[in-house]
Design a protein that fits this description.
Elements lengths: L1 H17 L4 E9 L14 E13 L2 E10 L3 E11 L3 E11 L6 H6 L1 E12 L4 E10 L8 E16 L2 E16 L2 E17 L5 E15 L8 E17 L2 E15 L12 E10 L1
Antiparallel strand pairs: 1-2, 1-14, 2-3, 3-4, 4-5, 5-6, 6-7, 7-8, 8-9, 9-10, 10-11, 11-12, 12-13, 13-14
């Protein structure tokens, strides 16, 4: 385990040192969809953030390093190496889940879960787009009795019209917490339509998304309550590019209607929302 961490650290370090002109993107996000450690709903939303560094190192290759705290599932550091052609992008790289355990801060500091990320995106001249990607945690041999595994994935298919990009998208993110062999499971799965409207001379783009979100929680003890509910989410905002080097955007979504999906669970009367703001700068 330690050898893996050391190797990944030196990979990250060597990539960072080799960058001479980078694209920097930062994001701040907030959400109350994530549950507390015992599976109860949040009265105060949780905050997260993302820092991305990206650089094209060769004519058809770029490298990306990402430091991410997802406000709904946890923390991960990952990097990817991407081959880009006129039709397809293929990426692969390592990842590490950090500071995600629940028992104590000391356990969180000593628990690093390795993983791998991979993805394929297709963009054709006719306007057809499709792709899938995932970040998968790896359960190592002799894993600690205290661990947390964070995994994400998505798949999309769509079409780029003259002034509209429309996609059907499936996204899933989940987290498994292990304490003394007992496991709890938390996941968020989205199915929906994602659009972005724009007018080519304008530097403004308007995203409008409508999707169904399924949130599940299975506790590790019988004293905690399981969760299985759905929400219809409406989401919109804007992206604006001031010039070729700077982009700024805001995206906000809220539950139009939320309901339980298990007849044994009590009714759900709660307002859910999520929001993020990002800025992207080419240095």
């Amino acid at each position: 385990m330690k050898k893996y961490i050391i190797c990944v650290f030196f990979i990250f370090l060597s990539l960072f040192v080799s960058l001479y002109a980078i694209v920097l993107e930062s994001e701040l996000n907030v959400s109350n969809f994530g549950l507390k450690n015992n599976g109860s709903y949040r009265s105060i939303p949780d905050f997260g953030g993302v820092l991305r560094l990206e650089e094209q190192i060769l004519p058809h290759f770029n490298v990306k390093i990402v430091f991410e705290r997802d406000s709904e599932i946890g923390n991960v550091i990952w990097s990817s190496f991407t081959y880009q052609s006129s039709l397809i992008d293929v990426s692969i790289g390592p990842s590490i889940c950090i500071l995600n355990t629940l028992s104590s801060f000391a356990d969180a500091l000593s628990s690093f879960q390795p993983g791998i990320n991979l993805g394929i995106n297709i963009v054709t001249d006719t306007g057809f787009v499709a792709g899938f990607a995932g970040n998968f945690a790896i359960s190592v041999v002799n894993a600690s009795d205290v661990a947390a595994f964070v995994q994400t994935g998505y798949a999309n298919i769509g079409y780029r019209f003259p002034n509209l990009l429309a996609e059907l998208r499936y996204t899933h993110k989940g987290r498994v917490n292990v304490i003394n062999g007992a496991k709890s499971f938390f996941s968020i799965t989205d199915y929906g339509l994602y659009t972005e409207t724009f007018y080519k001379p304008s530097k403004l783009k308007i995203p409008i998304n409508v999707f169904f979100r399924n949130v599940k929680y299975t506790p590790r003890t019988i004293t905690d309550k399981k969760k299985n509910y759905g929400s219809i989410i409406f989401e919109t905002g804007f992206n604006i590019r001031s010039n070729s080097d700077v982009e700024f955007g805001i995206l906000t979504g809220f539950s139009v209607y939320s309901f339980t999906l298990d007849k044994d669970l009590s009714s759900l009367q709660k307002f859910f929302f999520r929001s993020n703001v990002h800025i992207k700068i080419a240095l």
